Amino acid sequence: MQKSQEAAFIERISRKLGRPFPKEKPEQPVRGVPSEWMPDTFDTEQACAAFIANWTALTGKAVLLTPDELSQQLQEVIGHHQAQQVIRWDDDFLEEMNIDETVRRTGAEIRSWKEGDRRELLAYAERCQVGITSADFAIGETGTLALFAGRGKGRSVSLLPPVHIAVFPIERLVPRMTYVLTYAAKHGMSSSLNFITGPSRTGDIEGDLSIGVHGPAYVYAFIVKK
Amino acid sequence: MSAERSTIKERAKEALKDDYLRGAVKSTTDRLRTNKLASQEALGNWEWWRERGRQIRAHVVANLDYYLSQLAENVRQNGGHIYFCETGHEAVKQVIEIAKRVKARSVVKSKSMVSEELHLNHALEQEGIEAVETDLGEYIIQLAKEGPSHIIAPSIHKNRHQVAELFAETDGKEFIPSDTQTLTAFARAKLREKFMTGEIGVTGCNFAIAETGSVCLFTNEGNGRMVTSLPKVHIAIMGMERILPTVEDLEVMMNLLPRAGTGQKLTSYVSIITGPRKSGEVDGPEEFHLLVVDNGRSEILEDEDFRQVLHCIRCGACLNVCPVYRQIGGHAYGWVYPGPIGAVITPLLNERNDQYQDLPYASSLCAACYEACPVKIPLHDLLVKLRARNVEKGRTSRWEKLSFRMYRHAFRSPKRYRVAIRLASRLQKPFLRHGFIQAQLPILNGWTGARDLRGFSGESFRDRWKTLQNVLEKDKG
Ligand code: SF4
């Protein structure tokens, strides 16, 4: 039944367009951004500098650091926000950076996003003051993180706690969105691909900008260079 | 809503009395506009991008049948469900059917203009299902039992004290401080509870992507992410034209939409959602449903000129620059969509409803809307065309035609024009309030009978007249 309703709907559109349903895929006169927007090579350091500038302009904090510095910075931030509970992605890079050990040194509890009881995990994430993710890409031009959801990579980790910290290697930096969308188109879409550009914000009270209305108010990007 | 019965003129008059409204609408739209200019500059050749945007949207709409069927295939491929709803009523029925099947008691919603067309919240509540708007602006107007007055800033007409009062009332409190932080924190706490317990998340859809079967949401607050991450079921509702061929095309819209609407380089969150959660994932919905809604849109496809209105990406830029919107605010437009886009699309989507056919007159035809539009929809031309159509269909009064003719006579020669202007500006003084002629001048009777005429200012009116005259010529011919 569903199908015939659909057929009728689409038939009506063809009729209104005044021609039969196209036999072949229509030729797109233009597609996406021009190809010169994605040169084969680019300067990672430059993309990184642009990211830091843009992320900072949005009230976020972004720093380029060594693994040792990362451990210090992380402890500082967790102390600063007096976090007692932390949730993190179950992610290879975060493991490699020994995030758990660092966090526990501050006295806070940390759990990773593992398969298990959905309710319980969500409730825990909701109680956390800090969520730590990695980022699949970071985009210089706009100051944007790209997070592909997946096993171990819960959407809620970068969403429910008021503080979001993203820890990722400098190699994940790209100059512009084109690289990420092209990658996604080629490798298949994850169930949820989130682009995060600064903190959660609203201007709905008299146009007065305010951060952290639903998502995180404090957003940190720790870019690791070994 | 009383607004539904009255004419645009009566509603505008009501709005013009409200000083806060005019101040707030002006300062917010000013801010949005200034940001817009700055962020456009950062992108480089804005005109080039607008043309790119226009081409992509025009291509999709001209091949809508193909892209919709491609979208449907891919949504199913991803394990989602898709429904094609000819009317708003069918869409509402579909949502309720899903809600009943999963025994939902609470629905959390992220902003969706199309669901306003369907009066979805009302229908859900009649079934005993709570429907909570979670965008802060939408939450405010839902508590106030009003509709949105701006596409991207729906509560633009409310000041902080009114918001504080509403919140206090909801909480059974006497008083809540009205500073922004307290108010946002209040909404955060209240709505967080709703996010955690809602069984269904309902969202709009900024763009659906045919090639991947995805829907894409732009939100600043993160409420769109909440309602697509926490509830067990996600229902996305889209106007049938909100589609792009590929995910690469989305980049062009990511450049255009936020810059045009709020002047951000990018909205805080852009989420591309492709089907329900996959195995091994803990959050995200178990079920994904996409409703494609026609509700009058296919009628617009026939006429190639009007077809362009379906290119709209609902960025709100045309509202921010419209001198009429800035005076009267959104509610005066009487239906879901305010501003220049509303003045065009409302009469088209409500073709059979005479009540909305006066909206094309709520414009000064200054073309600022066209200049602002990121996909180059010639709204001012379409307004003129709609007026002409009203004339064709005999919807305008005899008086209006007559006064048009008198105008033509008066303005045919520059000398007569000057005399008329001088005469009019002297005559109008006793009738001028807030720069509008509100009384009925005999010569203007047909004109002011349908709208308040802006006080004469000379040149711009002459330009406007030229356009109107063309319409009348057409009418005669
Ligand atoms: S008509 Fe153009 S400017 Fe107005 S909302 Fe639509 S896309 Fe934006």
Automatic annotation (TrEMBL), chain A:
Residues 50-224 form the LUD domain. It holds the Pfam family LUD_dom. Residues 1-36 are annotated as: Disordered. It comes from the Bacteria. PANTHER family: LACTATE UTILIZATION PROTEIN C. This is Lactate utilization protein C. The gene is lutC.
From TrEMBL, chain B:
Residues 298-333 form the 4Fe-4S ferredoxin-type domain. Keywords: 4Fe-4S, Electron transport, Iron, Iron-sulfur, Metal-binding, Repeat, Transport. InterPro entries: 4Fe4S_Fe-S-bd, 4Fe4S_Fe_S_CS, FTHF_cligase-like_sf, Helical_ferredxn, LUD_dom, LutB/LldF, LutB_C, NagB/RpiA_transferase-like. It holds the Pfam family LutB_C. It comes from the Bacteria. One of its GO terms (biological process) is lactate metabolic process. GO terms for molecular function: 4 iron, 4 sulfur cluster binding; metal ion binding. Coiled coil: none annotated. NCBIfam families: LutB/LldF family L-lactate oxidation iron-sulfur protein. This is Iron-sulfur cluster-binding protein.
